[in-house]
Amino acid sequence: MTSTITTPATTTSATTTSATTAQWTSIPTPDGTFTVIADDAERVLASGWTDDPEYLTALVHRSIRPATLARTDGLDALRASVESYYAGTFSAIDDVEVRQHSGPFLERAWPVLRTVGPGEPVSYTAFAEMSGAPTAIRGAAAACSRNAAALFVPCHRVLRSDGSLGGFRYGLPIKRSLLVREGYRFD
């Protein structure tokens, strides 16, 4: 099945270029439809629990935002990683390539977030410290809220200092479900 969506063209700098076309696919999960947008190298540009690829495209930094989206039944490796994650192999998402762009702190923080293990969430304060900026707690929260590649960059593994969930773009029930699935026990 193939369908195409055209999004507004973007201006790019000399150092980054926007993919002309990206592919997207949706995967049914226990938490709802999970959609992935990937560039021609199958690097995740955006992902999340929605069936609306245009919503996800808007999350991609304008310098790498695709001009056109093409639905595909392919992206087999990405589909398999999501399915394996939901089957209990949480490490299946670890080696998936992700492409995001932002300022220096966020670009440093996102790879750090990928080191937070399943069932071992950290606080926003600890995440800021891990990212090399112990006083940048708001920056750590921004890294989570501006993360376009949900699940692959596991922002659901960051909690408030008091252990409460905090926020999550796709809703607190999904964040809780992911944490419980990964073995985290709420008091």
Structural summary, described in words:
With 187 residues, the protein is an alpha/beta fold. It folds into two domains: 81 residues, Double Stranded RNA Binding Domain, CATH 3.30.160; 78 residues, Arc Repressor Mutant, subunit A (Orthogonal Bundle). It is built from six helices and seven strands. Strands 1-5-2-3-4 form a five-stranded mixed β-sheet. Strands 6-7 form a two-stranded parallel ribbon. The protein is globular, with a radius of gyration of 16 Å.
SSE blueprint:
Layout: E1 4-6, E2 21-29, E3 32-38, E4 44-48, H1 53-57, E5 68-71, H2 76-86, H3 104-113, E6 122-123, H4 124-130, H5 137-145, E7 158-159, H6 172-181
Parallel strand pairs: 2-5, 6-7
Antiparallel strand pairs: 1-5, 2-3, 3-4
Helix pairs in contact: 3-5, 4-5
Summarize the structure.
The protein has 187 residues and is an alpha/beta fold.
The geometry reads as globular
Q: Rg from C-alpha positions? A: 16 Å
Summarize the helix and strand pattern as letters.
EEEEHEHHEHHEH
The helix content, as a percent range, equals 25-40%
Q: Could you say how many structural domains there are in total?
A: 2
Strand order of the largest sheet: 1-5-2-3-4
Number of strands: 7
Number of helices: 6
Which band does the percent of strand residues land in?
A: 15-25%
Structural class by sheet pairing and helices: alpha/beta
Distance between the termini: 45 Å
Give the overall average pLDDT.
90
CATH fold-level topology of the largest domain: Double Stranded RNA Binding Domain
Query: Can you summarize the main beta sheet?
Result: 5 strands, mixed
Uncertain segments are 1-17
